[in-house]
Write a structure and sequence with these properties.
Order of helices and strands: HHEEHEHEEHEHEHHEHEHEHEHE
Strand order of the largest sheet: 6-11-10-9-8-7
CATH superfamily of the largest domain: Aldolase class I
Largest sheet: 6 strands, parallel
Shape: elongated
Number of strands: 12
Number of helices: 12
Structural class: alpha/beta
Helix content: 40-55%
CATH architecture of the largest domain: Alpha-Beta Barrel
Radius of gyration: 23 Å
Strand content: 15-25%
Oligomer: single chain
CATH class of the largest domain: Alpha Beta
Length: 301
């Protein structure tokens, strides 16, 4: 089980989700009119679709935000440490049980499911990509193409699916992209980059440094520069990526500078890309084009 995001980083997100559902008057009209205020209910979260369960620790945080009387219980044989991040190929797997005031349980249902379905979908999607590149040197990486406010959770889901995290945000990694370099002539690129790297290393010697290129000519210049950890090959086709790997290897940079494929990667093309020899493949579709995992809440009668 990977470390779950710090609860303190999720409180505002959970409260936002709650407010947008209950509105300014904190009201679930249907439950208030139909359910006795003293009624106690028990509901079981059930994964019905094939895929990876992910995000279960957030259920207790959501329940607490709705009603501190709601209690989350683990199910014997399905403890959190076992099922979180686990692939399930059965058609029905119990995840957690929630017990408490029925009104509050029904009010919290949709927000709980929204998080679990989204994160389970991302973890499952990631695992599909990871399996497609098995037997190659390539690893699957996520991107910053995440749902606003959900980045920490979505990147956690990528880890649960067997993928790797790229930088979390603009603050924790240096990635020099094409727009940063638009005004720099290619022949001056290496001098410019060396100066940037020196400044970055002075600030933080451990900071990952990555540079984006979209031509082999740019790559040649970038490979002249010491201290670049990763070169991102933007929208190159497979023959270009193969040539890029050969160019990198001839330069003596294998093991020092990794190559990362990026741009339009799909489940159909990812293995062919991996076979070019790149070490990293960035896949925006892990988080921006996801089918929700089928999870429901069954209320006991």
């Amino acid at each position: 089980m990977f470390p779950f995001p710090n609860p303190n980083d999720l409180i505002d997100l959970i409260n936002l989700a709650r407010r947008e559902d209950l509105g300014p008057n904190n009201d679930d009209v249907t439950s208030r009119l139909l359910i006795d205020e003293n009624a106690i209910g028990v509901g079981t979260l059930v994964q019905r679709g094939v895929g990876i369960s992910c995000g279960l620790p957030i259920v207790e945080m959501i329940c607490r935000a709705y009603d501190e009387r709601l209690r989350v219980e683990q199910i014997p044989g399905f403890h959190l440490e076992i099922i979180e991040g686990r692939f399930n190929d059965a058609r029905s797997m119990p995840l957690l049980r929630i017990r408490g005031p029925l009104r509050s349980l029904l009010s919290a249902e949709r927000v709980i499911l929204n998080f679990l379905q989204r994160l389970g979908g991302i973890a499952t999607q990631t695992q599909r990509f990871v399996r497609r590149v098995e037997g190659t040197a390539a690893q699957i990486y996520d991107t910053r193409k995440t749902t606003p406010g959900l980045r920490l959770l979505e990147k956690y889901a990528v880890l649960c699916g067997g993928g790797q995290n790229h930088r979390i945000g603009l603050y924790d990694g240096l990635l020099v992209k094409d727009n940063h370099l638009a005004a720099i002539p290619t022949k001056e690129l290496s001098i410019f980059l060396q100066a940037i790297i020196s400044r970055s290393r002075t600030e933080d010697a451990r900071r990952l440094i990555e540079v984006e290129v979209d031509t082999l000519e740019q790559l040649r210049e970038v490979l002249k520069v010491d201290g670049i950890d990763v070169v991102l090959l933007d929208n190159m086709d497979c023959p270009q990526m193969t040539a890029a790997v050969e160019l990198r290897d001839r330069s003596g940079r294998r093991g020092k500078t990794a190559l990362e494929a990026s741009g339009g990667v799909t489940i159909e093309t990812v293995r062919q890309i991996a076979l070019t020899g790149v070490e990293r493949i960035a896949v925006g579709a892990l988080t921006h084009s996801v089918t929700a995992l089928d999870i429901g809440l069954d209320i006991e009668e």
